[in-house]
Design goal:
This protein is of the alpha/beta class and 415 residues long. The protein folds into three domains: 161 residues, Ribonuclease Z/Hydroxyacylglutathione hydrolase-like (Metallo-beta-lactamase, Chain A); 118 residues, no CATH class; 103 residues. The chain has 15 helices and twelve strands. The strands form two sheets. Strands 1-2-3-4-5-6-7 form a seven-stranded mixed beta sheet. A five-stranded mixed beta sheet has the order 8-9-10-11-12, with no helix packed on it. The longest helix has 27 residues.
Length: 415
C-alpha cells in the first residue's frame, strides 16, 4: 500500500473498532463507526459498510454477538462507502432465510443517489482525486423507506428514533435511543476534525444549518455519544460541551465572515484577515484533520456571493493554455511586461493583455510601476466592456475600471 493509499484509508477509519457500548448496542468497524442495536427480536443497523471484506467482517462480528435477524439498515447519509455494502447484507439475510431488511434513509438520500448515477463520471473523478489509490465502488442500493424530519421505528423492547440532522449532507440522520441515553451522531459530528464544511470538491454544506443540527442533538441531553470517527464519549457534560461548543464556533464563523463581507472584503481578503480561536488548535475534535477553517470561510462566502473573484480578468478568461503562453512570453521576453500587454492590446488581444498585466497590476506592494499597470488594466477593462454582450459583465468591467483608475484593486477602500 502506498503512502497516499494508507493516509486515505486511515482518515476513513473509526477509532473504536469493535466495541460494546451497552447491552445489545455495539460498534461495528466500517467506514467510520457503524452501529448495531439489538431489540427483543431483531437487530437494527446504522450503516452497513462499503461492501466486500469490510461488510463481511461486520457480518462476522455481528454474528459473534447475536443470531437475531437484521430487520432494518439505516443510512446515516448518502455519501459513497457508508452503505455500498447493502447488497452484501441483503444476500446475508437471504442465505439465512430471513426477510430482507428495510433500508431506511432520509428522503434526500434518494435524490442524492439519483444525482450520483446521473454524474457517475464526475463522482468517480472526484473520488479518485480526494482518495488517491483507494478502489472506488458504486453499488448504490436505494432505500425503500424514507422520512422527512423524525421517525420512530416499530421495534420491541427498545425505542429507536431517527432524526434528520442536515450537516455534512442534506440527508444526514442521527439515531437516538431514549431509554439508553445513547446518541449516534454519525456524519453530523465526526469527532476527529472540525466540521467538513466547504470541502474543495463538493457542494455547499451550509454552516448555520449544521449548527442548528448540533443544537438539536444537544437538546436531547444524551449520556453517551457515538461519533462518526472519534471515540465514544460517556461523560454527559463533555457531550454537551462538544456539541454546543462546535455549534457556537460555527455561528462565530458566520458572524466573522458576514462582518467582513459587509465591509466589502473579497474571499481572498477575508481569508487573509481571519484570526481563528485557540480552540481549533487545542481541542482534538476541532483540529484541521479533514475539514479546515479556511474551507468554512470559503463556503460561507460562496453562500452569499457568486463565482466571480472580483478580478475582471476572470470574467471571460482566455483559454488557459493561450493565457499561459502569453504570460510566459511576457515574463521571458526582452520587452517589459507592461509593454507586451500594450502590444497585445494594439493587436486586438484585449483579454490576453489582461492576463499579462495582472503580473504587475495585482501586486501587493504599490509603487509607480504598479499604479501605471493598473491604469493600463483600467483601459483594457473599458475595452472588454465594449467587446462582450452581457450587461452584467459590461457593468463589472466598467466598475472595476473605476476602481483601477483610482489605483486600487480592493473594494473595501471604497466604502
Amino acid at each position: 500500500m502506498t503512502e497516499s493509499e494508507s493516509k486515505s484509508k486511515k482518515i476513513l477509519t473509526g477509532t473504536e473498532g469493535f466495541k460494546v457500548i451497552a447491552k445489545g448496542v455495539f460498534i461495528l468497524p466500517a467506514q467510520g463507526n457503524a452501529l448495531a442495536v439489538e431489540t427483543d427480536d431483531a437487530v437494527i443497523l446504522m450503516d452497513c459498510g462499503g461492501g466486500g471484506r469490510m461488510s463481511a467482517n461486520m457480518i462476522k462480528l455481528l454474528r459473534d454477538q447475536t443470531d437475531k435477524a437484521v430487520t432494518a439498515i439505516c443510512y446515516s447519509h448518502g455519501h459513497l462507502g457508508y452503505n455500498d455494502g447493502a447488497s452484501d447484507w441483503l444476500n446475508h439475510n437471504q442465505a439465512r432465510d430471513d426477510a430482507a431488511p428495510q433500508l431506511i434513509a432520509h428522503v434526500n438520500c434518494q435524490r442524492r443517489y439519483h444525482r450520483y448515477r446521473e454524474t457517475l463520471g464526475l463522482q468517480t473523478i472526484l473520488a479518485q482525486m480526494q482518495f488517491p489509490g483507494l478502489p472506488i465502488r458504486f453499488n448504490l442500493v436505494d432505500p425503500n423507506l424514507t422520512f422527512d424530519d423524525r421517525i420512530c421505528l416499530p421495534t420491541r423492547g427498545r425505542r429507536i428514533e431517527l432524526l434528520h440532522v442536515p450537516s455534512e449532507t442534506d440527508d444526514c440522520i442521527a439515531m437516538w435511543l431514549p431509554d439508553d441515553g445513547i446518541l449516534y451522531a454519525g456524519a453530523a459530528f465526526p469527532g476527529t476534525t472540525i466540521p467538513n464544511i466547504g470541502t474543495p470538491l463538493r457542494s455547499q454544506r451550509f454552516t448555520l444549518r449544521w449548527a442548528e443540527s448540533l443544537e438539536k442533538m444537544a437538546a436531547l441531553k444524551p449520556t453517551t455519544l457515538v461519533q462518526e470517527f472519534g471515540p465514544v464519549i460517556t461523560d454527559p457534560a463533555e457531550i454537551q460541551k462538544r456539541l454546543s461548543r462546535t455549534a457556537s464556533l460555527l455561528r462565530w464563523f458566520r458572524d466573522e465572515v458576514v462582518t467582513r463581507m459587509n465591509l466589502g472584503l473579497s474571499e481572498a481578503e477575508i481569508l487573509q484577515d481571519m484570526n481563528y480561536p485557540d480552540d481549533l488548535q487545542e481541542l482534538d475534535y476541532l483540529k484541521a484533520r479533514y475539514g479546515a477553517p479556511e474551507y468554512i470561510v470559503r463556503d460561507l462566502y460562496r453562500q452569499e456571493n457568486g463565482w466571480w473573484s472580483r478580478n475582471p480578468t476572470d470574467l471571460h478568461p482566455a483559454d488557459s493554455g493561450a493565457a499561459g503562453d502569453a504570460v510566459m512570453r511576457a515574463a521571458s521576453g526582452s520587452e517589459s511586461i507592461a509593454g507586451y500587454a500594450e502590444h497585445l492590446e494594439a493587436t486586438g488581444e484585449t483579454q490576453l493583455a489582461l492576463h499579462v498585466i495582472d503580473l504587475i497590476a495585482n501586486a501587493g506592494t504599490v509603487n509607480d510601476e504598479v499604479l501605471a499597470a493598473r491604469k493600463i488594466k483600467a483601459r483594457l477593462c473599458r475595452k472588454r466592456a465594449k467587446e462582450v454582450r452581457p450587461y452584467v459583465s459590461k457593468a463589472l468591467y466598467n466598475s472595476s475600471a473605476d476602481l483601477l483608475e483610482k489605483g486600487s484593486i480592493s473594494w473595501v477602500k471604497q466604502l
